Amino acid sequence: MDDWHLMAEMEAIVGSIADLARIEVQRHDLVLSELIVLLKFAADRLYSNVFQVYNLDAPRTTTTTVASFPRCAVAADELSPLAHTCLARLKGQVNMRIPLATAQTVMILQLDPRTKFSVASLIQHPGEAGEKIGVATDGKQATKERGGDADDERLEQTIAAGNKILYDAHREVYCKLNAGSCGGDEEAADVSSPNFDLVPSVDDDKVICGAPIAVTKPTTTSKTIQHAQADKVVDEWLEYTVDWVSVACRYSADENKSKDDFTPLMLVRRNGVVCWRVEAVCEHVDILRWFRESASGRFRSIAALARIWLGRAPSNASQERVFSTGGFVMNSLRTRTNNLRAEMQVLLKHNKKEIRHMELESNSG
């Protein structure tokens, strides 16, 4: 029975990472912002002080499944020594496979209205928040902070760099979408006043003078004006909020579901404040559809930029960051696990030398 209890503890530890690699990451319609949320959600589970472990002693029926199997809360410091070893090794793997966030990561999260208000928490490395308040990841008192002010400074610099990339990229898209009013930039430069400091003074009456030139200050070009307009759109976008419960209800395939069904799934109350549950909003809202149907009018340039950064599928390198063999056990569409193919891949890989030896013998015979 001790082996079964150990297996239950290990399942609770690796469960979120395994589900992420086998199911969530392999969705063909996954956008990059959702992948960042899923990676963060799964990694944070490893640094939780409580794990939901299968309750092997609880009564169950013949219809009990993996999803409905009874679970009980077990504190991290109550896990067995072998489970602690598993937890420590998995944390090390996650830390190696999930790199530090970049400015591009910040930009992607800000383009997604579901994640733009949670950028700081999403790019924070797993476990940093818990360690900074003086609690270690194994449930014991921490003796020192992980990075302290250095981590905070790095976080602020990354967000600032992401903001700059967002504003610069949006300016380019905005000007291209409004190219008709950008065409006067060169003409405006041609008619601007020359440098009057270079004009010599003469007292010779024989100099034939034409019409006097009025001294004018350099005028603001149309490109500068458009950049200001583009920045104003980004400012408005970053403050724009959406009622995701209504959106999820409208997009739901189940017509019988109402707002009351989605409200407890997508909202959470923390410290008396009601907030959106980001991972649930990502699960129930098709963001590309929302951009097509709702945002393409008011935020046309933002929607165009989002199609570039969110519409493309994540690379295999990103999707297989959790499990390096994830791509080998999925079918071509990567929408579900192909168990038979997974077994064949494992068998063929581990018996590659033997199979080659058998083929050589068959050909020689």
Strand line-up of the largest beta sheet = 1-2
- Give the structural class: mainly alpha
Q: Percent of residues in helical segments?
A: 40-55%
Q: Helical segment tally?
A: 17
Question: Which stretches are low in confidence, meaning pLDDT under 50 for 5 or more residues running?
Answer: 130-146, 184-191, 316-335
What's the helix-strand series? HHEEHHHHHHHHHEEHHHHHH
Global mean pLDDT:
77
Q: What's the Cα radius of gyration?
A: 29 Å
Main β-sheet description: 2 strands, antiparallel
Question: What is the tally of beta strands?
Answer: 4
Q: How many angstroms does the end-to-end distance come to?
A: 52 Å
Shape: elongated
Proportion of strand residues: under 5%
Organism: Phytophthora fragariae
GO molecular function: protein dimerization activity
Protein name: HAT C-terminal dimerisation domain-containing protein
InterPro entries: HATC_C_dom
Structure report:
Residues 275-350 form the HAT C-terminal dimerisation domain. InterPro entries: HATC_C_dom. The model is unreliable at 130-146, 184-191 and 316-335 (pLDDT under 50). Strands 1-2 form a two-stranded antiparallel ribbon. Strands 3-4 form a two-stranded antiparallel sheet. Among the domains are: 1-98, no CATH class; 315-364, no CATH class. It is mainly alpha-helical and 365 residues long. The protein has helices spanning 2-22, 32-46, 81-97, 103-111, 119-123, 128-132, 149-177, 185-190, 222-239, 244-251, 259-266, 278-284, 287-298, 300-309, 316-319, 339-350, 352-364, and strands spanning 50-54, 71-75, 267-270, 273-276.
